[in-house]
Amino acid sequence: MGLTLSEKILKAHMVSGELTPGGELTIKIDQTLTQDATGTMVYLQFEAMGVPRVKTELSVSYVDHNTLQNDFRNMDDHRYLQSVARKYGIYFSRPGNGICHQVHLERFGVPGKTLLGSDSHTPTAGGLGMLAIGSGGLDVAAALAGEPFPLVMPGITGVRLTGKLKPMCAAKDVILTILGMETVKGGVGKIYEYCGPGVATLSVPERATITNMGAELGATSSIFPSDEVTKVFLTLQQRTVVWTELSADPDANYERVIEIDLGKIEPMAAAPHMPDKAVPVSQIAGRKINQVAIGSCTNSSINDLGVAADILATGHVHPDVSLGVSPGSRQVLLSATRAGIMEKLISAGARILESACGPCIGMGFAPCSCGISVRTFNRKRHRGRHGLSCLAGNRGRDRPVRRVHRPAHACGNQTGLLPLYGLRRLHDHRSFGERQGGRDHSRPQHQTRARGRPSRVRDTGGRAAENRGQHHHGSHYAGRGQDPAPALQHPRNRQTRV
Questions:
Q1: Cβ contact 2:124 at 8 Å
Q2: Are 141 and 222 in contact (CB under 8 A)?
Q3: b vs e for 464-485, b when ≥16 Cβ sit within 10 Å of the residue's Cβ?
Q4: 421-449 as b/e, with b when 16 or more CB fall inside 10 Å?
Q5: Angle at 246 between CA 253 and CA 190, to 5 degrees
Q6: 265 and 177 in contact (C-beta within 8 Å)?
Q7: Do residues 10 and 93 touch, judged by C-beta distance below 8 A?
């Protein structure tokens, strides 16, 4: 009997155990990622192990959460993370380089490899054909030290995609539809593996949107095959060398198969306060909104911003609405600027926020006390998240926060959720017909090549560092042959002298 793609990767990395559903096994971890909100503890634990250098093929320390650096504590954390990266041979992605999952997809993801991250949305890399798993900090620290990762063999659920998405529908609608079917607990102990002829109609950023929100299903991971679409994406990133074709065997046996006809997908939105409360946009049309946020690791690619810009090119944000846009990475920001996308967004009245997690984690751009905020994010809209509670005039009530499909669909002519052209209420996008003007940014031709061949000192935002002793907004990597520099002592470990 043939193997699923997930089983192939697990088998190739298995250290002990067997591929029996519910059985225990351990696997070798090829790559790790951390972000600054969880990474500090990861590296404190790793330092306590006394291992001189990381033993993974590649590890990256991203700073994308606490980038506002409101006081010395955030900056102290970031200086500590940078010094640890320099000492132990880890890539360091400085504040402003972008959101860890978007940058990792662009610069480091490799089909067929395993990735363990101290962030729940690490499975985003499954859009490239990686087996990516989010886990606790101690698990990541152990992986850095070369220890295998233990897990219970997940059940493999096949999601067979057929057809093609209709105009004005997006990958976010697909995962919201699945969430409505499976619920936020339906994926516990499972890997969702996407297959079928419909897969070829989705670009890598679209696939990453789906695998990203597999975390909201409670799934161990989500994964797409690595095919010609994957090759196109990696070629645009000047990383064709890492591409390999990967897919399940024709006679692979899935625990269960979900059939999804992409042509029947409707525009969806997730109502408060859980992502599985997905409803068709047509059911909530007509409601006045006050804020729109485009971004997060789910919907911040050049494709997402490009379609939104096309819609805004002939309109303007309504005076009663605040629009914030967070590009997913420095590469996305630079590419969007060169393509004229940022000019369209800014001219239409959008606020351009930092390439970081930002509003998704409640780091600024909080909603008002009695309005509706429409966000293209992934996070569960628990009461109190996104800066929603304990505000003056709130009277103890949280504002409704709704998740929609990709940023383009938050813009009037696609889902009507962004009040453009004088509108300030929710609209069913189907009343607007076809997408307005411009190129189809969901297709690969609008992605921009990374500039330059990566060097020892890397720029995880997509550009190689200049070779004149300057680190050009890049990540600092201490090669394994270099003398390690001492790590700063984290302030929490310092003894205060009175």
A1: no
A2: no
A3: bbeeeeeeeebbbbbeeeeeee
A4: eebbebbbbbebeebbebeebbeeebbbe
A5: 45
A6: yes
A7: no
What is the total count of domains within the chain?
A: 2
Domain containing residue 234: 5-264
Residue 388 is part of a domain; what is its CATH number? 3.30.499.10
Tokens linked to 300: 């911040």
- Start-to-end C-alpha separation, the chain: 69
Can you read off the two tokens belonging to residue 410? 């938050």
Q: How is residue 85 written in tokens?
A: 């990266």
- Smallest CA-to-CA distance from 458 within 476, 470, 479 is with 476
In this predicted model, what pLDDT tens digit does every residue of 407-424 receive, in sequence order?
443 444 333 333 333 344
**pLDDT tens per residue, range 351-368:** 888 766 556 666 665 666
**Burial of 317 from C-beta contacts in 10 A (0-12 / 13-18 / 19+):** buried
Amino acid at 283: Q
**Distance between CA 326 and CA 332 in Å, rounded?**
10
CA 185 to chain CA centroid, Å, is 20
Q: Strands of 55-199 (E only): list them.
A: 58-62, 91-93, 114-117, 131-134, 149-152, 155-162, 190-195
The answer to the question of residue 451 being in a domain is no
Q: What angle do CA 247, 250, 256 make, to 5 degrees?
A: 85
Alpha-carbon distance 67 to 84, whole Å?
18
Say which range, 32-36, 47-51, 449-453, has the weakest mean pLDDT: 449-453
Of 374, 323, 315, 382, nearest in space to 351 by CA = 323
Residues written for the chain: 498
Cis peptide bond prior to 490, omega within 30° of 0: no
pLDDT digits (tens, 9 = 90+) for 157-203: 999 999 999 988 888 899 999 999 999 899 999 999 999 999 999 99
Q: Is residue 481 part of a domain?
A: no
User: Among 399, 419, 439, which residue terminates a domain?
Assistant: 439
Same domain, 287 and 256: no
Does residue 129 contact residue 246 with C-beta atoms inside 8 Å? yes
Q: Which of 243, 264, 285 is the last residue of a domain?
A: 264
Are 272 and 402 in contact by the 8 Å Cβ rule? The answer is yes
Domain check: are 281 and 348 in the same one? Answer: yes
